[in-house]
Amino acid sequence: MELFLIKGNREIATARVNESYNRLKSKGFIKEVGMIEYVTGNCLEGKKILSVRIEEKVNGKPLSLTNWRLAMEEVPYTADMKVCADGQGRYVALMLKKRLDNDNTIDDDSIYRQVTVPTEMDVIEFIMLKNIGESWAYKDFKNTNISSGNSFLDRLDDMAKEYDLKNQIVYDFATLGTGNLTCALARKLYGKSKELNPNIKLNDELINRTVNLLNIIKDHPILAKDRISTRFSGGLKKFYKDNEITNPNDVYSVIRAITSDVWKELFIAERGTSAEAEKYAEGLTKIYERINLQEPATVAPFRIEAAAV
Question: pLDDT, tens digit, for every residue of 25-76?
Fold first, then answer.
C-alpha cells in the first residue's frame, strides 16, 4: 500500500527510522503492537500532501542504513489517496527494508488500518492528538499551523516566523513583567493538555509592546540576529523585573543605547564562555543607570527616543 505524508505532522527523524528498521529486522512487523494508520477522503482537501521516497545521499556511495535520505514532493490532492496518520516512522523504515533487504512487508495491506477524522475536527489536530502520547518537540507543533486556543499565543508565534527569531525570544519579550511563557508550556497548550497559567498576562498592550521591541531590534545598527539569543531575552526579562520597570519606553531606550563599544564592554563574556542571562541583565542595568545619570556620551552616540506605542 502506498501512503502519502502530510505537511504538519511531526518531522521524521533519521535516528528514529533507523531504530524502527533495526527492530523490524530483528522481530518483524508485529501488528498486535501497533498497525500503521491512515486517513483518506475530503478531510485532506486543502492540505499539503507529500509523496515520499528513499534515495541515496548525494555522495556517490550506495544506499545503506547510514547513507539514505528522504525525498519529499508536494502532490495534488485526490479523493482516493491515503495519508499516514500514525506510524510514519515505521512506514519509512519499511521503505528502507524493501530497498535494502528486498522485504515486501510494506505491500501487505493487513498491516494498515483506516481511521476516521471526527466531524468538525481538523485532520492535523487529529493526527497531533493521536500522537500526543509520544514526545513532540515544539517545532512539531509549530509546523501544524493550527491554533493553540489562545489568540495572543498564536500572534506571538506568527511574529516569531515573521521576524525569524526563536519562539522563546518572542515569548520573553511579550512577558516582561509577568509570568514565564515557555515553549514547553506552549506545547501543552497546543496539545490541549493545559491552559495558560493565570500569572501570565497576555493582552493587546503587551502584544503591541512586543511588536515595538521587535521593530527596534530589526532596525538596530548592531543587534544582528545572532546576538539576539534566548540568553539575551532572558536577561531582558530579569532586568525588567530587577529594576521594577513599569514604562516600556525605558526598555526601548536601553535597547537603542547599545552600541558596538557598549556591547564589547558589557556583553562579551570571557574567552571560551558565552554570556548568560545574568550577564545580560547586569549589562542592561548598567545602561539603564547611565541613562538615568544622564551619561549619553558613555551610553550611545545617537539620540535615545521612545518608541511609539
Answer: 888 999 888 899 999 999 999 999 999 999 999 888 999 999 999 999 999 9
The DSSP letter of residue 45 is T
Sign of CA dihedral 49, 54, 55, 61: positive
pTM of the model: 0.57
Which stretches of the chain score pLDDT less than 70? Answer: 132-146, 191-194, 271-274, 294-309
Residue with cell 519606553: 249
Separation CA 54–CA 195 (nearest Å): 40
For 86-182, where are the alpha helices, taking DSSP H only?
Answer: 88-101, 123-130, 138-142, 151-163, 167-174
Distance in angstroms (rounded) separating the CA atoms of residues 209 and 212? 5
Residue 148 CA to its chain's centroid (Å)? 13
Q: Which of 119, 115, 145, 129 is nearest to 8 (CA)?
A: 145
Angle between helices 204-218 and 167-174 (to 10 degrees): 120
- Are 52 and 70 in contact, with CB atoms under 8 Å apart? yes
Q: How many Cβ atoms are within 10 Å of 72's Cβ, its own excluded?
A: 13
Q: Which amino acid is at 48?
A: K
CB 193 within 8 A of CB 128: no
